Amino acid sequence: MSDTQTSPIKVGLFVTCLADMFRPEVAFATVKLLEQAGCSVEVPSAQTCCGQPAFNSGDNHSSRKIARQTIEAFEGYRYVVGPSGSCIGMLHHYPELFTDDDPWKARAEDLSSRAFEITSFLVDELKFSGIHSNFKGKITYHDSCSGLRELGIKQQPRQLLGEIDGVELNEMQEAETCCGFGGTFCVKYPDISNRMVSNKTGFAADSGADTLVGGDLGCLLNMAGKLKREGREMQVRHVVELLADMANTPAIGDADYDLGQEL
Amino acid sequence: MEIKSPEFKQSARIALQDANLQKALGNLKAGFPGKRAAAVARMPEFDALRDQARDLKNHILENLDLYLEEFEARVVENGGQVHWCRTSDDARQTILQICREQNAKTVTKGKSMVTEEINLNEYLEEHGVQPVETDLGEYILQLRGDHPSHIIAPAIHLNLEDVSEAFHEHHNRPKSDDPAVLMAEAREMLRKQFVAADVGITGANFLVAETGSTLIVTNEGNGDLTQTLPKTHIVVSSIEKVVPTLEDMSLFLRLLARSATGQEFTVYNTLSSGNRRPDDQDGPENFHVVLVDNGRSDMVGTQLQDMLRCIRCSACMNHCPVYGAVGGHSYGWVYPGPMGSVLTPQMIGIEKAGLLPNASTFCGKCEEVCPVRIPLPKLMRHWREKEFEKHLSPKAVRWGLGGWAFFATRPGLYRLFSAGASTFMRLLGGKKGKISKLPLAAGWTDHRDMPTPTGKTFMQQWQARQKQEQQP
């Protein structure tokens, strides 16, 4: 961190396709946090999706194409940071896509060594502890699977949330159990996915919290969609919204958006 | 056993609505995971042992032929015989042949998933030999004409009432719902069978190369009676169960019970080392080991080799949220849960078993608890790759993926596409902020709302902001 005084740390933001399309606030909050931590943030325009839908469907040809595109897009950045353990976890899978004699393998390994999920980047890499947020509420935290098990993200978001005076964390039962999203899983096996997300919303509601927080929009959209369908009052937010003090917009699935104004 | 894996989705749907099954699955989830966690917490070196076990298994698999041949040599020295069977059919015929040489009418059986895999019971019955399952769970299933839904707790899908009903019907006794009474009843019925059996068949948890011994672990002691009382003992084992030494075996035993039931040690750990010696008080006169390959040697040297480390503890299924939701029968063949989703395609073909490796969110819990660190999600993905290469994935999936990949590999077009999709969804969502019915995504909106995008895409907003900042 000593060089932050002299030159800011150059970070390429991996927006993630879900934040891009469904909740741009999450990407803006990530930018805000990175800037607070002394980074200069750029958004390479050649990025799309991490390629996980292809990778997990066994389509390695498409995955490789997307991996090469992402590797090129983020060349030259000291770090690649995104608001998702799942997508950043996918970047860590890139080396598996190339054979040892393929020059792309080394480039994939290089990218993966620079790629971090936002809360883990702030805590593990920058040792950052300058969260300023006026958020106030009882929250419960869902540990998304890829972040938890592929990147070891568990205590980092809790540590950062702990810096917010108004946060009361009520851990739910089975916080580490999958919410049933699983990318294409939720549409390929809707009945099973529904059971899993119903278990999850039940545990979340039982925790006594009024806001369900997590670090991956896939899981959050899934759980928010279920809570809405069940008619529960609980709000759902990405952890960066709380950390960046940007939780004053409507929660996920609560948007009061008037397209007419935009058109 | 009839293969029903292609009907996974229908079976799962029925299972989710089966209140009895859901109650039974609730018992499983409330039991095994907590007990395992407690056992692991009591053993600080658990993770170090897992690394050792993984490395040792890898070494064994690199030298599988050598250890199997050493095992065979010791079995023969001990007076037994080893039968090498490439296919299920070879194994069944070999076992029937041994039974016929003994003029066997009934055989008692210890719990063995490999005998399920080779469909032994049905085959023996067809050929006039009556198999009698002696593991309590398996015994209950046999009475009901049912199959195991779990590799160590075969009747986990049943509740006490089901057992009570089955016993009442088959034992001709007053109906009881007292577990102790039911247990005593089963014991009484089985005692006669143990004595009457001509042949005893057990599986093996491990084959020890240095001594030519086979080992089974049970919590009921039924395996001991199965293998010591009849004149002939047949051990049916798959080839990857071999370990070099007794000490190596003990490493796996330390992991097995803790991972499976959370016990420090299984109640009965029984070694069989050949037939009865002149001074022995009991034991079989004939000792046979039937080694079943059934596709396993084809896994050696491939990515699937890691799967052969499996010691059949069941931790993966005990912790799997998908197994926990639908139970073992939904998987439609012998091996359920994550380990089954990797093994089954190898044994019955990816054409029939394709739905199994797809039925995972890749949450990674299975790998987290596996005592020999099998990368189960990675191996399930391996099958998805095979499926995709062979053009077996459903057309809708391939087309959807193709269309998506077209845009995802063209960032400029992707921007337009995502902006369009965002606008479309906001139109559909209107002022509610959520969509309750989305075309082409019924799988989602049948069960939950789709939160609508909150505005223009991030990329649109970001670019607009950049432009603004650049203006003087």
Q: How does this model look, in words?
A:
The complex is a heterodimer of chains A (263) and B (472). Chain A has 263 residues and is an alpha/beta fold. Chain A folds into 2 domains: 123 residues, Glutathione S-transferase Yfyf (Class Pi), Chain A, domain 2 (Up-down Bundle), CATH 1.20.1050; 112 residues, Rossmann fold (3-Layer(aba) Sandwich). Chain A contains 14 helices and 8 strands. In chain A, the strands form 2 sheets. Chain A has a 4-stranded parallel β-sheet with strand order 2-1-3-4, sandwiched between helices. Chain A has a 4-stranded parallel β-sheet with strand order 6-5-7-8. In chain A, helix 7 crosses helix 9 and helix 11 packs across helix 12. Chain A starts with 8 loop residues before the first strand and ends with a helix. Chain B is an alpha/beta fold. In chain B, the strands form 3 sheets. Chain B has a 6-stranded parallel β-sheet with strand order 1-10-7-4-2-3, sandwiched between helices. In chain B, a hairpin with a 4-residue loop joins strand 5 and strand 6. In chain B, helix 16 packs parallel to helix 20. At the A-B interface, helix 1, helix 2, helix 3, helix 4 and helix 8 of A face helix 1, helix 15, helix 19, helix 20 and helix 21 of B.
- N- and C-termini, Cα separation of chain A: 45 Å
Summed up, the helix count of chain A is 14
Report the end-to-end length of chain B measured between terminal Cα atoms.
Answer: 76 Å
- List the domain count of chain A as a whole number: 2
| Order of strands across the main sheet of chain A | 2-1-3-4
**Unreliably modeled segments of chain B:** none
Q: Radius of gyration of chain B from the CA trace?
A: 26 Å
Shape of chain A: globular
CATH overall fold name of the largest domain in chain A? Glutathione S-transferase Yfyf (Class Pi), Chain A, domain 2
Please state the second-level CATH architecture of the largest domain in chain A.
Up-down Bundle
Mean pLDDT of chain B: 95
Going by helix content, strand content and strand pairing, the class of chain B is alpha/beta
Strand content of chain A: 5-15%
